[in-house]
Amino acid sequence: MSKNKKKIYKPKPVSGFSEWLPEIRMIEQQWLDHIRRVFESYGFTSIETPSVEEIDVLLAKGETDKEIYTLTRLQADPDDDKEARLGLHFDQTVPLARYTAQHFNDLVFPFKRYQMQRVWRGERPQLGRSREFVQCDIDVINVDHLPLHFDAEMPAVIYEALDGLDIGRFQIRISNRKILLGLLEHLGIDDTIAVTRNVDKIEKLGRDEVHLILAKECGLSDEQIIQILDLATDSVLADIDPLNDQMREGLDELNFVMDQLSHLPDHAIKADLSIVRGLDYYTGTVYETVLLDHPEFTSSICSGGRYDDLAGSFINKRLPGVGISIGFTRLFEVMQNFGKVQGHRKGPADILMVLPSEDRRADASETARLLRRRGFKVEQYHAPQKIGKQLAYAEKKAIPFVWFPPFDDDGKHEVKDMNTGEQSETSPDNWTA
Amino acid sequence: MSKNKKKIYKPKPVSGFSEWLPEIRMIEQQWLDHIRRVFESYGFTSIETPSVEEIDVLLAKGETDKEIYTLTRLQADPDDDKEARLGLHFDQTVPLARYTAQHFNDLVFPFKRYQMQRVWRGERPQLGRSREFVQCDIDVINVDHLPLHFDAEMPAVIYEALDGLDIGRFQIRISNRKILLGLLEHLGIDDTIAVTRNVDKIEKLGRDEVHLILAKECGLSDEQIIQILDLATDSVLADIDPLNDQMREGLDELNFVMDQLSHLPDHAIKADLSIVRGLDYYTGTVYETVLLDHPEFTSSICSGGRYDDLAGSFINKRLPGVGISIGFTRLFEVMQNFGKVQGHRKGPADILMVLPSEDRRADASETARLLRRRGFKVEQYHAPQKIGKQLAYAEKKAIPFVWFPPFDDDGKHEVKDMNTGEQSETSPDNWTA
Predict the structure, then answer these.
(1) Which residues, other chains included, contact B191 with Cβ-Cβ below 8 Å and sequence gap of 6+?
(2) Does B313 reach chain A within 8 Å, measured CB to CB?
(3) CB contact, 8 Å: A73 with chain B?
(4) Among A228, B46, B296, B426, which is most exposed with the fewest C-beta within 10 angstroms?
(5) What's the domain range around A258?
């Protein structure tokens, strides 16, 4: 046994917590940068909240089915109950509600914010479901009344955000819960939650199966069920007769939203009355988004809707809002799984600066600085090794250009395009890629 | 009592966990974007690791004095010991070591990575010390041998990164531990850790106080102490006589590093042999950075150094590295405290698009889209309210331009500069700010 033998703990990935190699991380950054750029281009402003909230805040709306991670200091005194009970946030909506209430007097309304942070849920991991993941959310909150303009803006923003990613065609499906709820009111059905949750399953289970469930579990008559399912599967809004004020309001709102989106490709936007979203707190417009070119992944990659009361648990104000959330990590992992995320560059450098000899180090550094000031990303080779070795390094990292500074005082600058193999004289003052 | 009376939980900030209003967050984003841009301009590539590691990984180098937060699912079965014991990472070095070991075969060396993530420490909060904070780290890792080039690159990168922030003048202080350790070897002093830790306090306690401590705690003779303190306070490297190989190596290395930084302003870079860094794992070059225009904040805002063995706990390879870390949140909070971070814009929009009337909505939207395609950030006003009200909204959010699309079919576009008050005819096809 060697006396230098150390105890080695061989690390392995922790299930549900992903990390990427640099070449994949670069693409993840491009995706996130693009989404951020689109959000900001519509005037949404960034906020970030702490990763933790008090447990009382996380549970302010009542128990949640999300698996919350709580924090304990490793060296905490178990008898010390003065420490705040903290948990990692499981979404960005509860923190938004708490933030809006807490900073109410310092915010300008309508408050248009985006938030792109990690959230945590201690769930059983599977493809598209991690224990730590990034969500990209936009919401607009107003006091008392929120104009319908924002219901229409959400899908416009999301279309641009998703369209810039390499995910193929997708479809944002839009409905308005008032239409179905209006029909249920008209039919005298009280247990709207059970009915809407089952209507939500039409795409997954098919119409016949949902018919049976509605009869068995909700005790509805065939006639009632047929009216409900006809409505939910009707895609021509103009054909629908509003049977009461609630239905009419829902149809008007949905028509307004669809009108504002007429500039988008037909396949990308669809009115779909079977979309009701399981969450009970949505009160009007609702959204879901599916991948059209990858129908084998049936879950929604981007969902949301309008709600009447964002922060009633935290402040005595009526704060209606509308929001939508891209399940970023889910989407990125699923596209990787489909082989659609392939990075080859191992770093951001545009140029590798060759070091011809130790004597020329100052000159190489100065050339690199000059090119950086001109906006190029320049990695400097670290030692005066053989040129072949320096070129091999550029190749291994897929750096597109290799720069040769003068090899002596009378020499010239040359640059080699690693894709074409061409090498030519140049100057750091005016070279362009 | 009203029947609508709800139970309200008034949220308050959780000590040690900060969040910013939108106008401050915008500046934080600008700072982070700038730092990232500089890191990438030198070819550093981004990685992110999960926020959590197994406790065994966090403690692989032995117990730490950092206060680790461990995770427990709120609904976990206390008798289930099959769940991985997880803790939030307290720095980015342990995760880097684990990552490099785990992905060793997929990385290109020298591995130049940057990492800008949140880390957590359950410490008592105070100004410049939070329980959740962002660090911006760069490190270069190589196998077996790491060229000195990278020791010199670190301060060059950091100078550019910090120089782009509004923090006044700062100074990066550089030393090489081999110089002092060489002298201690020459003097026959074995307990180098105790001595270097006390030398580190010269700036804080003064030379005389440290003299007393070294005599009392380390049992050194006056003659030994004078030699040590003379060296530590000597700022002219050329005056120092190397007394053995270790000292000579340290001086050569430090001279090389200082030579490579001669392009930087004199005040920004200083060889300072009193810098030894408390951490025992640094083996050569060490860095600290202080604010020159805010001497009342004495802590280092950016520190690091060279180490021989990054990941010996996780892989049977010799992986030397050099790295430096900006304590981002510390710096940002301290500068806020000095009144140096003042945001007035409440969002990113360059332009507010007026909505003249419901009839003109399609045209306003189309104009906004056109300007967005040209790279402008355009917020669309949401309802056809009085123009005065729309202007007041732009003013409240400090949006610099207000755009008036045609009020009728024969109308023209006009744009108002909110700073000068000037309003003029324009076209969305060729307007520039």
Answers:
(1) B218
(2) yes
(3) yes
(4) B296
(5) 180-269
